[in-house]
Amino acid sequence: MMNNEQDDRFEKRLRFVARRYKEGSLDEDKAWERFAARQGIRRQVAFRRYWMVAASVVLLLIGFGTFYMKDRNNPEWVSVVTASGQLKDVYLPDSTLVSMAGNSTLRYDLKKYGKERRVVEMTGKVFFQVKRNEARPFSVHTALTEVTVLGTSFQVNEQPGVTQVNVVTGKVRFAAGEALEPAILTAGMSASYSDEKKEINIGTEEKPNDLSWKTKQLRFNDTPLEKVIEDLGDYYHVKITNKTGSPDSRLTATFNDLPLDEVLMVINQTLDIRLVSQAEK
Question: Which domain holds residue 230?
Fold first, then answer.
């Protein structure tokens, strides 16, 4: 009964509106303006502000995303440099120990190091004791070559136009250019690459003093005098000259962290020669 009465009232109101409604007589925009004026609402301004705020948020998010992607891809270089005669030990993030001789440089990208590979760049003479990690090979890049290992100890001597590698323990892969077959070096082996000759040479001659800058020890075992002079010059960073004859002399001796003048005195007395450094007259 109640529903029928409500329906009748609704139908009467609908007929009343239909009799009095003229097409175009209801302007919804004006109606809204009158309502908004009474209520103190500024619809257009509020609507515009809403979209300005929304657009600002979107632009801010886009800018932040672009900055984040760019910043993530930018390298964060960590660089270490040694002066002439300076020796320095450096631990990399994975606990790999790097020993640097004088006039050497080392750098790596902190953001990428250890993510997929462990890559460092260097110049000069550097000895590496690499923390083993089979999932992330360790690579040393020089201007001309790349040395790749899993876990080992080796020295890289990078000079203009020439790179030399000496392996103390483990095994390394020594590569230079795409046209050359990489060399696999094991403990006790060495190899060098010359940019002039464009080839990798495997060393067969023992070089006990290649690490003397690190061990502070010079070892000679029936070594020709010419090689003795060369090793002394490299270790003490001076030019050694033979003021007497006897170029065929050979030396067997070991020197543990001795000053140059004492070493020269022992050699001169032992071989009955006269070796002098560049500073001597």
Answer: 212-277
